[in-house]
Amino acid sequence: MARLLVEPHFRLQGKVAFRCLDPVPHPVNFGGPHNFVQVPGFPRRGRLAVSFRFRTWDLTGLLLYSSLGDGLGHVELMLSEGQVNVSIAQTGRKKLQFAAGYRLNDGFWHEVNFAAQENHAVISIDDVEGAEVRVSYPLLIRTGTSYFFGGCPKPASRSGCHSNQTAFHGCMELFKVDGQLVNLTLVEGRRLGYYAEVLFDTCGITDRCSPNMCEHDGRCYQSWDDFICYCELTGYKGETCHQPLYKESCEAYRLSGKTSGNFTIDPDGSGPLKPFVVYCDIRENRAWTVVRHDRLWTTRVTGSSMERPFLGAVQYWNASWEEVSALANASQHCEQWIEFSCYNSRLLNTAGGYPYSFWIGRNEEQHFYWGGSQPGIQRCACGLDRSCVDPALHCNCDADQPQW
C-alpha cells in the first residue's frame, strides 16, 4: 500500500511560545499643571477606538482629547465628579454628551474602553459585563492625527488640543489607539509623540486619608496633593474637625445670654466623646443640666428574690455612660433622683444585715444609702435623724408594713 506524505500548510518564524504574553504595564505619572502625553494616531479611519487604565484621587481632569479628521470636530473624555464624561462635538451638529462609571476617583486602577463610529458610540468601565453605555446618534467619524492623554500642551493653539478641562493628576498605563498598544519606551525616548511634566515607569499617587487625619468621624476626601475633611454632622469644625461647635456646659450657655431650653453640649471639648442634647434649666445665677432617661415612669416589681433579683437599668437619652460621666466630672454638683415606693417590701432589711436593694454607681460600685443619707452609711434619711416609723430600723420601708 502506498503512503502519502502531506506537507503541513503552516510555518514558524521567529520566537514562538505556546502561551499569550500579557502586556507589561508601564505607568505614567501625571503630576504637573500642564502635563500631557501626545501620541500619533491612524488618520481618516471611520472608527475611533482608544483604551487605557487610570487611577486618581481627583474628581476632575482631562483624560483624552483628539481632533477628528477633515475638520469634523473633536472627542473628549474627562473625569467629572468621579465619572467619565464623553463629549463629541461636530461642526453644525448638537454636541453629544454622556457618562459612565461611579466614584472612579477612589485611588484604584480603572480601565476605560471607548469606541465611536458612524451613528454609534460606546464606552465601558472595567470591562463590567452589561455595564457599557451605548449611544445611537447622528455621527460622522474620521480619526485624526494625534491623541492627547492627561491634558493639553500650552499654548493650545499650536498643538490642536483645545480643551477647557483642567489637567489630569494621577497615573495612566496601557494606552491603546485604534487597537494598537502605544510603545511608551519610544515615547519616553522622544522617538514617538511628545510629552511634558510626566514621569515614566512610576506612579506617585499617595493615600493622604490613610490614616484618617479627620477627627471625630469626619470624612476624608483627597486630591493629588491635598486632603479635605468634611465635618458635617460631627459636631466639630476646622481643617481636621478638631474645634467643637457646641459649648461645654449649660453654664456656658447661661453666660452667653441664653434662656432655658434644649441645647447640645460637649463636656470634653475636642476630646473623643460626642456632643449630646440636654435640657438647660437656666436660673439667674446658675444653670442646671438635666439629662433625660428612660425610667421616668413607675415600674411595678413583683416576685423579686435574692435568687432572681430585679435589675432596673437607667438608660440616658442621647448620651452614653462615658459622656454622662464626663458631664458629671465637669460639674460642681451632680445628683440622680430615684423614687422607691414600698408595700410589704424591704429596702435595707435590717441594720446589720445584707441589704435587699442597692444602686450601682458609675464605677460599678454598690451603694446602700438612700433618701438624703450620706455616702458610706447604710441608712435612709430617717435613719440619720432617728425619725423612722420603727426606731430600731434605718429606713421606713424596712418596717415591712402593708401600705405604700
What's a concise summary of this model?
With 404 residues, this protein is mainly beta. The chain has helices spanning 184-188, 250-255, 321-329, 381-384; strands at 28-30, 36-40, 47-55, 61-67, 73-80, 83-90, 96-100, 110-117, 120-125, 133-136, 146-149, 170-177, 180-181, 194-196, 198-200, 219-222, 227-230, 236-237, 243-244, 261-265, 276-282, 287-290, 359-360, 366-367.
Description:
6% of the residues lie in helices and 28% in strands. Strands 1, 3, 8, 9, 10, 12, 13 and 15 form an 8-stranded antiparallel beta sheet that branches. The protein is elongated and about 115 Å long. 28% of the residues are buried. The chain has 3 domains: 28-200, Sandwich (Jelly Rolls), CATH 2.60.120; 219-288, no CATH class; 338-404, no CATH class. It contains 4 helices and 24 strands. With 404 residues, it is mainly beta. The mean pLDDT is 87.
Topology of this protein?
Elements: E1 28-30, E2 36-40, E3 47-55, E4 61-67, E5 73-80, E6 83-90, E7 96-100, E8 110-117, E9 120-125, E10 133-136, E11 146-149, E12 170-177, E13 180-181, H1 184-188, E14 194-196, E15 198-200, E16 219-222, E17 227-230, E18 236-237, E19 243-244, H2 250-255, E20 261-265, E21 276-282, E22 287-290, H3 321-329, E23 359-360, E24 366-367, H4 381-384
Antiparallel strand pairs: 1-12, 1-15, 2-11, 2-14, 3-8, 3-12, 4-5, 4-11, 5-6, 6-7, 8-9, 9-10, 12-13, 16-17, 18-19, 20-21, 21-22, 23-24
